[in-house]
């Protein structure tokens, strides 16, 4: 029962410390990003293949 309570508290605490902003480093100037958006770093959508290289 204690493990269940601890797990519940841990899961409930994730929303408490949610990040409001996420920053991305990009070498392009802001006007290019606003005009064209961010460029993709690749087209591989298979996470397991991406992790293994």
Automatic annotation (TrEMBL):
GO terms for molecular function: NAD+ poly-ADP-ribosyltransferase activity. Pfam families: Pertussis_S1. Coiled coil: none annotated. InterPro entries: Borpert_toxA. GO terms for cellular component: extracellular region. SUPFAM superfamilies: ADP-ribosylation. This is Pertussis toxin-like subunit ArtA. It comes from Salmonella enterica subsp. enterica serovar Newport str. CFSAN000835.
């Amino acid at each position: 029962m204690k493990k269940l309570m601890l797990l519940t508290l841990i899961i409930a605490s994730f929303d408490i410390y949610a990040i409001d902003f996420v920053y991305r480093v990009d070498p392009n100037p802001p006007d290019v990003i606003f005009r064209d958006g961010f460029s993709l770093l690749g087209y591989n959508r298979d996470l397991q293949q991406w992790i293994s290289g």
